[in-house]
Predict the structure.
Amino acid sequence: MSGLKQRVPQIILTVVALLLIASAFVVRPEGSNAPFVQRLLAFADQEFATWFSILAVFAFLLGGLNLIATHLAKIRDCGPDRFYSLVTLVSFLGVLVIGTAKLGGPPGLQGDVTAPGSWLTAVFDAVLSPLHATLYSLLAFYIASASYRAFRARSLESSLLLASALIILLGRIPAGRYLTAWIPEQLAFLRVEELSLWILRVPNTAGQRALMIGIALGVIALAVRMIAGVEKDPRSGGDGS
Amino acid sequence: MNSWLAPGTWNIALIGAMVCAVIGVSVVRARRGAHVQVRAFPPLLALDRAVADSVAQGRPVYFVAGSQDIDNMQTVAALAVLRPLARKVAEAGGRLFVPTNRSLVMDNAREICRRAYHDAGRADLWRDDWVAYISDDHLGFVARVDGLIARERPGLCVLMGFFASESLLLAEGGHQVGAVQIAGTASAVQLPFLVASCDHVLLGEELFAAGASLEGDAARLGSLRGQDLCKLAAAACLVAGSLVATLADVTGAQPWLLLREAFLNVFRAG
């Protein structure tokens, strides 16, 4: 029974994956007289994405219920984080009610929940948006502290990183251009803005392309492992050999 | 048959089939006992030590499987890393927290961890709420996880999968509590941020190979060998293509021009 439990998901995975891969290379049939396989591939291409969306809706329920259960348990256990959990639960349920009942907005099933004047829009504009902006603004300080650690010239690699970062930084600001404006026209390629462009266009592009080729092959290898059953369904836990 | 094939896709189908065939043959050969030597990934070598230190200090391990759903290959690759990691943490008797921002990822991660603790004989230690759904909202997720990290003070933070702007927010959160940070992503835009803020980083394709490398079984290692052979072929094609294009431009001779056109036809997408 447990063998069957593992095999059925694997068979579904293999069949669906092969259908979707094949559908990417086959012309869409124009009439109902098209061969069955061609119609099947077109159906797979169109419908499987919709099925995933339907599955994702149920997953929302799973996530919401998990969130409620986790935070209720924390409040019940009177742990040190219980007040955070209380705030989370009240916010979650409050926004759920506001959104579902469409408070303040155009009434009825067809009413736009995000219309101006609706409570959901007010929550978004007055609470969520400022919170996002606050958190996002931390990035400026985090980038500075991470750069400070990364750009210390401890080795050849970090020295190269430091040098290229400096050139790019100087090449992107007006002050940097003034620094090397004295270099004669014949040696203009040594000006900081030209060096900066060269780093972006040549070594950076070469590195990015090498990375993309490797990633594409990595994705294909992982997909082949999954389709062939070597890389089991993450839930199966067995080894793939 | 020709009327079935979508225009401009024959070359992609051909190259894709060849790549799959090479990887498939490598897997079969490895399963039959062919020796496969795979280079060690320094970030994965550091994982054992970091898990042991973290557990010895009584600090938990945190794992974040990116910010995308289970239909993203980077998330699948991250979950492939979670399985051996969970086994290591369970064997060491540690606590593994996996905050997630997608319900389906939570469901899969919970099952993986539960099974790993069970297989390691530490089912008594495992608690389902160690794998929790936080929020689909990226910044809401980061706020919660950074808060948890600040309070729980993990000894090891593993960030694997696709990240957007939250990569640096998460990595700096871990850095501030002195956690060892091991990351891996195939998101080229976020790689510099992770390299700057983490102790060890799996770059691009290494993320997809990490699970196979940690599991270490013949079939998975065989697929890595196949992948490397394809990479070698890609590099050879790049060098040959560059030579042909250069010769065609410099000499203007008809054979080189035809060869360049043939190269472009084979590798042109769409």
Observations:
- The longest helix of chain A spans residues 36-76.
- Confidence is low (pLDDT under 50) at residues 237-241 of chain A.
